[in-house]
Specification:
It is a single chain. This protein has four helices and ten strands. With 185 residues, it is of the alpha+beta class. The protein is globular and about 45 Å long.
C-alpha cells in the first residue's frame, strides 16, 4: 500500500517506464541531496522538469537538465539567455557541462545537468495543474494591477515587499508561471 497519492503515482510510472525513467516536475521548491542520506546539495525550483533515475528508500534520484553559464555553472536554467531557473547548487562540481558553447549577449552557455535525491512526494506529472494553481495565485494577488509581462522581475525587488509579494513561499510558483507564460518585453 502506498503512503501517498504521489508515491503511488511515482511507483506506477517507475514500474511502467523505460530505464531512463519518467519526466516529472517539482511541485514546490525541493531540496536535493547528493545521496539518500547526505546533506544539502542544491535546490530545485517549482515546476522544474526532472528525469527519475532510480528509487531508494524514501527518496528518488533525479536528473535536471538545461543550460548554464560556462563561467558560473552553479545554476541550471531552461535555456541559454533565458533565465528561468531550474536549479541552484552550493557544491562545486554538482553541475556538469557538456556540448558546444552557445553565445548569448556575450555570455557563453553550455548544456548542463546535475543529479541528486529528492522526496518523491514533491514530484508530479501534472504540470498543467501546477500552472493552474500559479495562474489563480496571480489572479488573486497581482492581476488587478498588472498583466503577465516579463517586466515583473525588475519591479519585484522595488515593489514586492510593500505589497506583500516576494519571490519566496507561495509566490515562487506564481513567479515561475509568470516567467513561463509572460509576453516578451
Amino acid at each position: 500500500m502506498c503512503k501517498s497519492l504521489a508515491a503511488c503515482a511515482l511507483g506506477t510510472v517507475l514500474a511502467s517506464s523505460a530505464p531512463a525513467g519518467p519526466v516529472l516536475h517539482s511541485s514546490a521548491p525541493l531540496e536535493m541531496t547528493a545521496s539518500p542520506a547526505s546533506g544539502y546539495l542544491g535546490r530545485l525550483a517549482p515546476a522544474t522538469p526532472v528525469t527519475v533515475i532510480e528509487k531508494k528508500g524514501d527518496k528518488v534520484k533525479v536528473r535536471v537538465s538545461g543550460r548554464a553559464l560556462k563561467d558560473y555553472p552553479s545554476q541550471i536554467f531552461r535555456d541559454a539567455g533565458l533565465r528561468i531557473q531550474y536549479a541552484a547548487f552550493d557544491e562545486d562540481g554538482a553541475v556538469k557541462l557538456s556540448g558546444a558553447e552557445k553565445s548569448v549577449q556575450s555570455n557563453a552557455w553550455q548544456a548542463a545537468s546535475a543529479e541528486g535525491w529528492v522526496p518523491p512526494a514533491g514530484l508530479t506529472q501534472d504540470l498543467d495543474g501546477l500552472w493552474k494553481k500559479a495562474e489563480v495565485r496571480h489572479a488573486d494577488a497581482c492581476s488587478t494591477c498588472h498583466g503577465a509581462a516579463n517586466e515583473w522581475a525588475g519591479q519585484l525587488p522595488k515593489r514586492g515587499g510593500r505589497t506583500g509579494h516576494s519571490s519566496a513561499g507561495a509566490n515562487e510558483q506564481m513567479f515561475k508561471w509568470m516567467q513561463a507564460h509572460a509576453k516578451p518585453m
